[in-house]
Amino acid sequence: MRALTIGRYQPFHKGHMNVIWEISDVVDEIVIGIGSAQISHELDNPFTAGERVAMIRRTLELNGFKGMSYIIPIEDIQRNSIWTSHLESMTPPFDIVYSNNPLVVRLCKEEGYEVRHPPLFKRDEYSGTEIRRRMIEDERWTHLVPEGTLEVIDEVDGVQRLKDIVREEDSYGRKAEL
Ligand SMILES: Nc1ncnc2c1ncn2[C@@H]1O[C@H](COP(=O)(O)OP(=O)(O)OP(=O)(O)O)[C@@H](O)[C@H]1O
Ligand SMILES: NC(=O)c1ccc[n+]([C@@H]2O[C@H](COP(=O)(O)O)[C@@H](O)[C@H]2O)c1
């Protein structure tokens, strides 16, 4: 059986990692969709699709992931009604979907997929929004992401990028909402 899970992974954190390990215990193969692949260099979406692929690939390798995985960037499209077909056109066929995103759940169910809800781990800390906030505010965050993610963020100077985005937004008079 092959499962699909999708997230923006901005960045990939330990909550995401736990989910992938749990899913791989019950399915043969896992497709990891990287959502909003076209977006980067924004406050809520600082990392490119390629950087997010690298975070996940490296994390799986460094942690000795034994399962079969496909990491596939998925761009957004303007029409929700055909998004599932768009997703299918980019991925190997999958049997079930793991997501807690209400729109993903609805659209996949409407196409007849079984949707399972992965458990949330330490959601107060394992959260992309919280990790980005801590990066910007110079609070501790490195313990919230796996080593592979940390390496990629360091390589691309991700924290500085995020701080620059905040500063640039401020200088244009827009409010940087965290
Ligand atoms: N702490 C967590 N434990 C388990 N799964 C999580 C956790 N946080 C997010 N997820 C799962 O990841 C998917 C969403 O990915 P996403 O990259 O949006 O994570 P996020 O932490 O919610 O990020 P953001 O705060 O940027 O929206 C959802 O299906 C959600 O169930
Ligand atoms: N019409 C669309 O393009 C469409 C519909 C549903 C979900 N998505 C994407 O799926 C991803 C879901 O991940 P999150 O749970 O991290 O939001 C997001 O990137 C979201 O943009 C896109």
From TrEMBL:
EC number: 2.7.7.1
Keywords attached to this entry: ATP-binding, Cytoplasm, NAD, Nucleotide-binding, Nucleotidyltransferase, Pyridine nucleotide biosynthesis, Transferase
Domain Cytidyltransferase-like: 4-134
Pathway: Cofactor biosynthesis; NAD(+) biosynthesis; NAD(+) from nicotinamide D-ribonucleotide: step 1/1
SUPFAM superfamilies: Nucleotidylyl transferase
InterPro entries reported for this sequence: Cyt_trans-like, NMN_Atrans_arc, Rossmann-like_a/b/a_fold
Pfam families assigned to the protein according to its UniProt record, in alphabetical order: CTP_transf_like
Localization in the cell: Cytoplasm
Similarity comment: family membership: Belongs to the archaeal NMN adenylyltransferase family.
NCBIfam families per record: arch_NMN_Atrans, cyt_tran_rel, PRK01153.1
Entry-linked HAMAP family: NMN_adenylyltr (MF_00243)
Protein name, as recorded: Nicotinamide-nucleotide adenylyltransferase
